[in-house]
Amino acid sequence: MTRVLVTGAAQGLGSEIARRMVALGYEVVVHGRDAARTDVALAAVPGAVAGVTGRLDSLASTRLLADDARGRGPYEVIVHNAALGGDQDRPVLTEDGLERIVQVNVIAPYLLSALLTVPRRMVFIGSDAALSGRPLVDLRPAEPWDGHRTYADSKLLLTMLAFELAARHTDRQINVVHPGWVRTRMGGPRAVLPLSDGADTPVWMATSDEPVARRGGQYVHKRRAEAAPAAAHDARLREALVDSLVAVTGEHLH
After folding, report:
1. Superfamily of structural domain 3-249
2. pLDDT tens digit string along 3-43?
């Protein structure tokens, strides 16, 4: 069977994606930020073959997560779903001295990508907020602080990271999916889309043999490739971002 890793699978979109992958016959490994959340993820996804644990707001814990995940692989598919929203009224620094939204949404997926074997398919859960993001490749949040702008910036940087990985691995299907405004804890009760709609395209991109799902380096919504933010196509900006990520993590991409 094909083995899949889904980060941030204790609730919301991650749980729904993982459940659908199980239903399609995949061996699914779910992730939670601590042991209690991993237990929640396992309970939320009946049929998951294993759970892995690690906080994405800590470089040390993300490294332990990579070790844990590596021991339960290899993976044909990785879905990078875990993320923080922009509901912060001030910058929050982690134990590594990094801004928390940026660390969870950008630095942690980079570190996992550097430490794990690049799978056949990778799906990064993005956001159309990336279209208004700023390519702050030095990873420092802009002043004055605005949590929602920082979230948009982080989703742009994540899109740039995914496009860089796709450019390095043209034989793999590495893509960004923006699921739309989904009713999750992050999206809130006013969001227009149910979980089922939000999970549809990520699962389709992870499993389908349709032409769009068989290509890499795309920004996908509702099973269609859309125009990506311009910065995602800028190789010099992507290189500068990777240089910053190497400086922070000490790890290089494959």
Report:
1. NAD(P)-binding Rossmann-like Domain (3.40.50.720)
2. 999 999 998 899 999 999 999 999 999 999 999 999 999 99
> Sorting pLDDT into bands at 50, 70 and 90, what band is 181?
low
What residues does each domain of the chain span? 3-249
As given in the structure block, the two tokens for residue 212 are 């769009």
> In the numeric block, which tokens belong to residue 192?
């227009």
Q: How is residue 14 written in tokens?
A: 């991650």
Q: Are strands 3-6 and 77-80 parallel, antiparallel or unpaired?
A: parallel
Residue that is written with structure tokens 């799978």 in the block: 119
Q: Based on DSSP, count helices (H) and strands (E) in the chain, helices before strands.
A: 8, 8
Q: Kindly give the residue spans of alpha helices, DSSP state H, lying in 96-185.
A: 100-102, 108-115, 147-168
- Paired tokens of 64: 């332990």
Quote the DSSP letter at residue 141. Answer: P
